[in-house]
Design goal:
Number of strands: 12
Strand content: 15-25%
Oligomer: single chain
Number of helices: 14
Structural class: alpha/beta
Radius of gyration: 22 Å
Shape: globular
Mean pLDDT: 77
Order of helices and strands: EEHHEEHHHEEEHHEHEHEHHHEHEH
Length: 362
């Protein structure tokens, strides 16, 4: 007789509340076959990492809080859970039934951090949405993330909040990390202009805002763009000389050339958002502005990318190298989306070096 699948139920956790802030989580109904220790712990565990991220909460004013009491409780219960299940030989089930394992790589500093949402002016009266994870360390660096197309979801900078990357990077590197919503995405005023001047002004406004934040060293800011975010970030780097470094993932650097070989869907998006004039293509093609970029650059690209051909990255890296800039080009055996396990070691090593504390001599 097949073993019955555990039921899923919704339960409000009354132990994790703060004023009008509360969480909902999916929990598994304890099975008769589970040990009593597992049954006691199940009500606060999560069956997926996405449920775990529900600890990042939003109140009516849009302020994101990472509840310290909830975080401490989850970590303590995870350690107890791991000890009891490892002792009983159920190591294989640990990852599947206890997504709290994600907490084991986040420091206590990260558990106590707060995420804030801001609406800033783009410089032309339009509003730009920005999410910020701030550290209290003085003279810390900062990084701004610029999202990609997002498959039509239009989440904007909230994507980096929902997947936990803002808190994780801020905690791991002890820096301020922010994510901006491009025009037409999230709560930023539209319309979208396919990485054009409006998007670039939104990124510059976000960088200016970050520079004024307490504890941020203006000389240690990194700009990180993914896909169409890389297109706009490369253009911003030509206008913003004070960046410490830029990271470009799966970007396009000669838009006209890519337009000619793109799918009909991408061609229609470019035509609708940007137009097909010579000026429109030039305003979105960093290859022709490489001589104005003055910062160290890390480029990541998939060898079999069908949206942004790999020769785009190769030509752009060569153009930057010709100006004498330090450039690192990493090509992976993949398509447009670079698997996390491939990109993270390169990404981590680069950022640890960029944000390494300066040596002090007495």
């Amino acid at each position: 007789m097949p073993r019955p699948q555990p039921k899923l139920m919704q339960r409000r956790n009354n132990n994790i509340r703060m004023g009008n802030v509360s969480i909902w989580s999916l929990v598994r109904t304890p099975s008769r076959r589970r040990s009593s220790a597992a049954q006691r712990l199940m009500p606060i565990t999560f069956n997926t990492r996405r449920r775990l991220r529900a600890f990042i909460l939003q109140d009516a004013q849009g302020l994101f809080l990472f509840v310290p009491r909830a975080a401490k409780l989850a970590v303590a219960k995870f350690l107890e859970f791991r000890a009891s299940w490892t002792a009983s030989g159920h190591r294989r089930l640990l990852t599947g039934y206890c997504a709290c394992i994600s907490f084991s790589s986040i420091s206590i500093l990260g558990l106590m951090m707060a995420l804030t949402r801001h609406i800033i002016d783009r410089g032309d009266g339009a509003e730009v949405e920005l999410f910020l994870a701030r550290v209290s360390t003085a003279n810390a660096g900062a990084m701004l993330f610029v999202h990609g197309n997002q498959g039509g979801l239009l989440l904007g900078g909230r994507e980096a909040v929902d997947d936990g990357s803002l808190l994780l990077l801020s905690s791991k590197l002890n820096i301020t990390v922010a994510a901006v919503s491009q025009p037409g995405f999230g709560s930023s005023d539209g319309p979208a202009d396919f990485c054009g001047p409006a998007t670039q002004r939104a990124i510059v406004a976000a960088l200016d805002f970050i520079r004024t934040q307490p504890g941020v060293d203006p000389g240690r800011i990194v700009l990180y763009g993914n896909s169409r975010g890389a297109v706009a970030s490369a253009m911003v780097a030509a206008q913003f000389p004070d960046l410490r470094a830029i990271i470009l993932v799966a970007g396009v650097y000669d838009l006209r050339e890519v337009y000619q070989v793109s799918s009909r869907g991408l061609q229609r998006a470019i035509q609708r958002e940007a137009g097909l004039s010579n000026e429109a293509f030039l305003d979105r093609s960093a290859l022709y502005h490489a001589h104005r970029i003055q910062t160290e650059t890390l480029i990541l690209h998939g060898k079999y990318d069908d949206r942004a051909p790999v020769d785009q990255a190769e030509r752009f890296a060569a153009a930057l190298s010709a100006t004498g800039l330090p450039v690192a080009l990493n090509i992976f055996e993949c398509g447009h989306r670079i698997p996390r396990e491939q990109r993270m070691p390169v990404f981590r090593n680069f950022l640890q070096r960029i944000f390494a504390p300066a040596a002090t001599y007495h």
